[in-house]
Amino acid sequence: MTFALMMLVAAAVLTFFMVGFQGLLTPLIQGFGWGLGSRDDPRDVSALQGRAARPVRNQLEAMTVFVPLVVAAHLAGVSTPLTVWGAGLFVAARAIYWPIYWAGIPVVRTIAWAAGGAGLIMIAIDLVGAAL
After folding, report:
1. What are the tens digits of pLDDT across the range 73-121?
2. Are 27 and 64 contacting, i.e. CB atoms less than 8 angstroms apart?
3. Which of 38, 40, 65, 84 has the greatest CB tally within 10 Å of its CB?
């Protein structure tokens, strides 16, 4: 298994925990009866729930780029230091981004988000270079 594929698994595990944490907040904040029920009567989310939901959506959006890049690199047999660093940077940045966003730290959050994007660009550059 390539390092990029290992990072894909790590990103999937991170996503699982992010979604689980977000889901756990609902019954804790809104009450177990409503949170574990059908939720037919909508309720406003708390600021904390919003901070948990937004990075989950962002993670899912980022995964729509990361997954195909890693799979394409694997299928093309591309595993260079640029791919390795790009995949590692993406996962590390996303792991940092989540708690920083949750804590409400604005500037560092943006830097972590940009670092994850840089990791995606590194993988894409490596794939384009291999195709030429």
Report:
1. 999 999 999 999 999 999 999 999 999 998 989 999 999 999 999 999 9
2. no
3. 84
Q: Which residue has the tokens 């972590």?
A: 112
Could you report how far apart the first and last alpha carbons of the chain are, in Å? 25
Helices 81-103 and 3-30 cross at an angle (nearest 10°) of: 10
pTM: 0.91
